[in-house]
Amino acid sequence: MPGGYKRGLDGGDEDALRVIDAVDRLLAGEFSNIDVVSIMNITNEVYRLVTRVLAAGDYQNQRQTLEEKIELVDREKEKLRPIFNRMLELGFDPVILTR
Description:
Layout: H1 14-28, H2 36-56, H3 59-78, H4 81-89, H5 94-97
């Protein structure tokens, strides 16, 4: 996200900074309609749920709920695919983008 905390965690990695800068520009312009905060919130909520269920050893009782929530995250993350595809069009290495 533009101005996000990731900038300070890159360890000076030039490739990471280039990706972050490009994503910032795309989110501020061409893809400003994508609600990244909502996608991240849903993803984090489901991650916490999965962690709690696994820690409690309650997977079998919660299996259907977990599978539905994980499918929700997959659908939400799919909303980011156009940004990834645009980054490929801009010449970014797919290996670097998936790090």
